[in-house]
Design brief:
There is one protein chain. By secondary structure, the protein is α/β, with parallel strands linked by helices. The chain has one domain (about 20-90, about 100-260): Dihydrofolate Reductase, subunit A (3-Layer(aba) Sandwich), CATH 3.40.430. It contains eight helices and 13 strands. It has helices at about 10-15, 50-65, 70-80, 120-130, 145-155, 175-180, 195-205, 230-235; strands at about 25-35, 40, 65-70, 105-110, 135-140, 160-165, 165, 170, 185-190, 210-215, 225, 240-250, 255-260. The strands form three sheets. A nine-stranded mixed sheet has the order 6-5-4-3-9-1-10-13-12, sandwiched between helices. The radius of gyration is 18 Å and the shape is globular. The chain starts with 7 loop residues before the first helix and ends with a strand. Keywords: NADP, Oxidoreductase, Riboflavin biosynthesis.
Length: about 260
Amino acid sequence: MDSSEPPPFLSAFLSRYHTPSNLRPHVTLTFAQSVDAKIAGQNGKQLILSGKESMVMTHWMRTMHDAIMIGIGTAFNDDPQLNTRHLPPRPPNPAQNGHDKPYHLPRPVILDTHLRFSPTSKLLKNYQQGSGRRPWVFCSSDAPDVKRKQDALEQAGARIIQISGVEDGHLSLPAVLKSLHDMGIRSLMVEGGARVIRSFFSASTSSRLVDSIIVTVAPTFVGDDGVGYSYDSALEGHNSGFKHAFTQVIGRDSVVGLVPVE
């Protein structure tokens, strides 16, 4: 596969974007898992599953979305950068005095009910250094000591968006998606972690919140050292509502795409 261009199957799949309503962006749920459906290590330990080739594919996917979402658990445990650093350098652009034309970077979005995001995170450091976009952090308007925490994070460069209404300790996903849509986000890539993925699956049993699913399956077993996303319990006996769209082998991994059943 030519890594200098997005994989054709990915471009074709994601070009089917449409906005289901005027209430939310198009949502692509994506994650890597082992053969036994583990996506993270126990106690928040980071679990590297994707091979080099599928990791590059994921970074191409990032360039195709307006924003990329993670939960506060992933922000704590992985301290991710959510950028496109694994993509190949672009050839010099004469119109820009020989400088490379940068790839599109998605807006980082963090779900953080109690506003625990760190002012020293890599996302904020990259923004301060001009190599990343300003993170948007969604929290509950009832979060303890929210004003002091908000001031500290905004001073570090974050934008804080307060959401009213929390269900079982989680922010209302429809409210978050509506807010993102109102702020100009038309396509959202949800990258995890397990709790966020579980929340999207669970919320989709009553109202459709996911438009595309892309799962990278690594040829390895993790066993009891890993945690999954509890797909069965999230659906609570409902039909999944998704159908197969494609399967592609990339390097050592299998990539599977699904779309909602119309």
